Every structure is written in structure tokens, then in C-alpha cells.
Amino acid sequence: MAYDEQLANQIRESLSDREDVTEKEMFSGICFMVDHKMCVCVSGNELLCRIGSEKVQVELEKGNCRNMMNNGRVMKDYVYVEDIALGNLKKLNYWVDLCLEFNPIAKSSKKT
Fold first, then answer.
1. Is residue 112 a part of any domain in this protein?
2. pLDDT (tens digit, 9 = 90+) per residue, 48-64?
3. 3-state SS, residue 61
4. Is the residue at 31 inside a domain?
5. How many CB atoms lie within 10 A of CB 93?
6. Fewer Cβ close by (within 10 Å): the C or N end of the chain?
7. How many domains does the chain have?
């Protein structure tokens, strides 16, 4: 599994003040689960952000991310952000904050 370890470490640092964060290997990378829900992932050198469909539309209009696709279907609450858009910690924290803002209202995945 190849993902940007430096980017993952920056996310770990951004989430370090929280006690409800766990990590899970998903989406060919590492996902940070907050309150048992997928919040943000590092996949390759990209960020996969769960920000909710309303914020997805806003961010897509800005042109700084792209839809997540799964089997030809748009995943409405998720966007990929390329590493170029993550040029500094302020931008990274912007995306992490969007993910954390949506997390309380995000649905939990079904337990297996």
C-alpha cells in the first residue's frame, strides 16, 4: 500500500488533540476514522475528503478538487484533492476542518 506518509503524518498532527480518531487501511491508503466514521484518507498522494454533498458542490465550483467515483457512480459526499492543492499546512487544515465539520452528521457505515 503506497501513500504519502508525510501527508498522513500532517493529518495525524492535525487530529492529535482528538481522542476519537483511529486509523484503518482503506481506499489503497490510510483512512482516519473519527467517531467510528470515515473522515479523511490519504490515498497515494491525494486526500480523500468526506465533506457532505453541499460542500462538495461548493468546492467543485472552486475547481480545487474532483468527485470520487465508485463503479461509475459519483459518491456524493466525497472529493479527491490532489497534492498540488495541499501546498501548505493552512490548506491541509482547511480540508481536515471541512471533514470534521461534516463528521457529526455523517452516517456510520454498517457494522459487519
1. no
2. 999 999 999 999 999 88
3. helix
4. yes
5. 15
6. C
7. 1
- Look at residue 74 and give its three-state secondary structure: strand
- Report the half-sphere exposure of 103 (CA within 13 A, side-chain side): 19
Q: What are 80's three cell numbers? A: 479527491
Q: Is the pTM of this model over 0.70?
A: yes
Range of the domain at 12: 5-105
In a domain, 69, yes or no: yes
Distance set, CA 86 to CA 20, 47, 66, 83, 104 (Å):
25, 9, 14, 5, 24
Cα–Cα distance between 30 and 41 in angstroms, integer?
A: 6
- Contact of 37 with 22, CB cutoff 8 Å: no
Q: Which residues of the chain are modeled with pLDDT < 70?
A: 1, 84-87, 110-112
Instruction: Please give the helix or strand (H or E) that residue 104 lies within, else none.
Output: none
